[in-house]
From TrEMBL:
Its EC number is 1.14.13.127. The keyword Ubl conjugation does not apply. It comes from the Bacteria. InterPro entries: FAD-bd, FAD/NAD-bd_sf, PheA/TfdB_FAD_monoxygenase. This is Bifunctional 3-(3-hydroxy-phenyl)propionate/3-hydroxycinnamic acid hydroxylase. Residues 7-346 form the FAD-binding domain. Coiled coil: none annotated. It comes from Umezawaea endophytica. GO terms for biological process: 3-(3-hydroxy)phenylpropionate catabolic process. GO terms for molecular function: 3-(3-hydroxyphenyl)propionate hydroxylase activity; FAD binding. SUPFAM superfamilies: FAD/NAD(P)-binding domain (SSF51905). Keywords: Oxidoreductase.
Length: 529
């Protein structure tokens, strides 16, 4: 078990979000204990799609190569109308601006095993399977965590942690133990979710069939796996009940023949659109489904949980190392909650639009889209999924600017690094910490800004623009990707957070007066830097 209880983080839950959080913390040298009540990682293929932000997070955690080995780079979702004809196929614009495919099918058991194997190789990390948390006692110095190990005759143990991350799913015991409620609604309709093997579908996109007689979804995966989701009619099934094979066989009949041993999972669900009332309770934090649950129609349930981990874990590591003050952890909820709520609303809205059982409404819907999609701009809006909530922070660790965008995620183009003479993804150049970019600014201005706001660990990089040579370390555009990313920041100094969100941007000589107050890792800045 890790040695220093004053810096230990306990992660409750070894699902994808908990394992990702542990990997992110381990990558920053934080000792972690993962407690999972089940004896093994899950063998149920629950989540089935990873987006580009999630893959970028795995890159930061040092595990992306393992994850890339279990996905298929996907190309979005195709929507079909009531008559079975394709209406539109949505996909991200190319090239992928975050450096990874936009939407990639995978099998959750494969992901959990890959993350688990990675953690077993990391120093300072312990994963205890079959360890159920039975008590949490937060105090001013941390949390006392009590757990029972099922494999040791029910032996109970207690460990002190500085922080606890509740990543234990929609029925979170951590959330319940702390008395945190959820706000939103649970949907009345029941859905049958069937995961099968030996399937003939080889499309690298999901298929949403908006047939009012039986709305359904088909999501092909790797190695002959496929997920089918069907809206159930009254009397066909209830959540928690056993699903007879003849029901599965009947619903799959229009699409394929299936044998009992080809069914990996058949479960009846009611979908939820719920958000926890609080995400931080002193030293305890809620992540993933413990903090928010949403219908699957936008494919963002797991991806939202991974965003939670990406936002929180670097902050915890910085607090434990003394680089940030404890109060910075309040920004986790203020930054993540608005986007999670917007994503829940999007998921519910897509469900209402695509999965209606009202034939007249479905007819009007199809006619509407047939008309508006004739316009190239409107078609691009839908095809490139520009209707997704913007992942942007307005509060928290950001400093407002009137001259450039802040609170947005910087993309990850391939760049030429003059320091190494190599072509690399931007994140590999910037490293794992803070970064200060000088976009078309002079070397003296960049040096002055680095002295004012940087720390020895801050990467300081000039960005070459306007096809001009620069002296010292710089990154140079190769294919237009870098130029497109930095165009809004021309002539600016740009401070980028470890999670690659832009914290501040300013012209040389006009350092924001509230920068040091918001970013407490730095001392008060000299005027005119």
């Amino acid at each position: 078990m890790p040695n220093d209880p004053t810096t230990r983080v306990v992660v409750v839950g070894a699902g994808p979000v908990g394992l990702t959080a542990a990997a992110l913390l381990a990558a920053r040298g934080v000792e972690v204990l993962v407690l999972e009540r089940n004896a093994t990682t899950s063998d149920e293929p629950k989540a089935i799609s990873l987006d580009d932000e999630s893959l970028r997070t795995f890159q930061a955690a040092g595990v992306v190569d393992r994850v890339l080995g279990i996905i298929v780079p996907g190309i979005g979702t195709r929507y079909y109308g009531r008559d079975g004809r394709a209406v539109v196929q949505v996909r991200a614009a190319r090239p992928f601006r975050l450096g990874h495919p936009f939407k990639s099918p995978f099998a959750q058991p494969d992901l959990e095993r890959a993350l688990h194997r990675h953690l077993l190789s990391q120093p300072g990390v312990e994963v205890r399977m079959g360890a159920e948390v039975t008590g949490l006692a937060p105090d001013a110095d941390g949390v006392e965590v009590t757990f029972r190990e099922h494999g040791h005759a029910g032996t109970s143990a207690t460990v002190r942690a500085r922080y606890v991350l509740g990543c234990d799913g929609g029925r979170s015991g951590v959330r319940t133990a702390l008395g945190v409620g959820m706000t939103g609604r649970s949907h009345a309709e029941s859905w049958l979710v069937v995961d099968v093997v030996g399937d003939h579908h080889d499309e690298r996109y999901g298929m949403h069939h908006a047939d009012p007689a039986r709305p359904h979804v088909i999501m092909p995966g790797r190695d002959g796996r496929c997920r089918y989701e069907f809206l159930l009619h009254e009397g066909e099934g209830e959540p928690g009940g056993e699903v007879p094979f003849d029901v599965v066989e009947r619903l799959l009949a229009p699409h394929r023949r299936v044998e009992p041993d080809q069914v990996e999972r058949a479960v009846t669900y009611r979908f939820h659109g719920l958000v926890a009332d609080r995400w931080r309770i002193g030293p305890v934090f809620l992540l993933g489904d413990a903090a928010h649950m949403m219908p699957p129609f936008a494919g963002q349930g797991l991806n939202s949980g991974i965003r939670d981990a990406a936002n929180l874990c670097w902050k915890i590591a910085a607090v434990l190392s003394g680089g940030l003050g404890e109060e910075v952890l309040d920004s986790y909820e203020s930054e993540r909650r608005p986007h999670a709520q917007a994503t829940v609303r999007l998921s519910e809205r897509l469900g209402r639009i695509v999965m209606t059982t009202d034939s007249r409404l479905a007819r009007r819907r199809d006619a509407h889209f047939a008309a508006v999609l004739r316009d190239p701009g409107t078609r691009a809006f839908y095809e490139e999924m520009r209707y997704r909530p913007e992942h942007r922070y307005h509060d928290g660790l950001v400093v407002a600017s009137t001259s450039a965008e802040v609170g947005v995620m910087l993309g990850q183009p391939r760049v030429f690094d003059t320091a190494t003479g190599t072509v690399r993804p931007l994140d590999d150049v910037l490293g794992s910490g803070w970064a200060l970019l000088g976009v078309g600014v002079g070397a003296d201005d960049l040096a002055a800004a680095a002295a004012a706001v940087g720390s020895p660990e801050t990467a300081v990089v000039r960005v070459a623009v306007d096809d001009r040579f620069v002296t010292g370390r710089a990154i140079v555009d190769l294919d237009g990707g870098l130029d497109a990313e930095v165009a809004p920041y021309a002539g600016h100094l740009v401070l980028v957070r470890p999670d690659r969100f832009v914290a501040a941007a300013w012209h040389p000589g006009h350092l924001p007066g509230d920068l040091s107050a918001v970013l407490s890792f730095t001392a008060p800045a000299p005027a005119g830097a």
